[in-house]
Specification:
By secondary structure, the protein is mainly β. It is built from 1 helix and 3 strands; from the N terminus they run H-E-E-E. A 3-stranded antiparallel sheet has the order 1-2-3, with no helix packed on it. Belongs to the small heat shock protein (HSP20) family.
């Protein structure tokens, strides 16, 4: 569950502060862009699927856009992330 993953992540990152945990389940890592700019962390995830069905083509589109302000005193070059 998301809570268990968050607890595990917080335990292994005890030397660092966790700014955010964003659920990107269902997105390929290549679908995700993380940018740190202008004192903010921006996360963009976009995925599009096309399937052939008996009636024709079916499209599925999902996206996530999150923007998080960095806490005071945190430099942009100090920010790390993992998927």
């Amino acid at each position: 569950s998301m809570r268990k993953r968050l607890r595990r992540l917080c335990k292994c990152s005890h030397d660092h502060e966790l700014l955010a945990l964003i659920d990107v389940e269902g997105f390929d890592p290549n679908d995700i862009i993380v940018m740190v700019k202008d004192g903010k962390v921006k996360v963009l995830a976009e995925h599009e699927e096309e399937r052939a069905t008996a009636r024709g083509k079916e499209y599925n589109y999902r996206n996530i856009t999150k923007q998080i302000s960095l806490p005071l005193g945190v430099r942009e070059d100090e920010v790390t992330y993992s998927l």
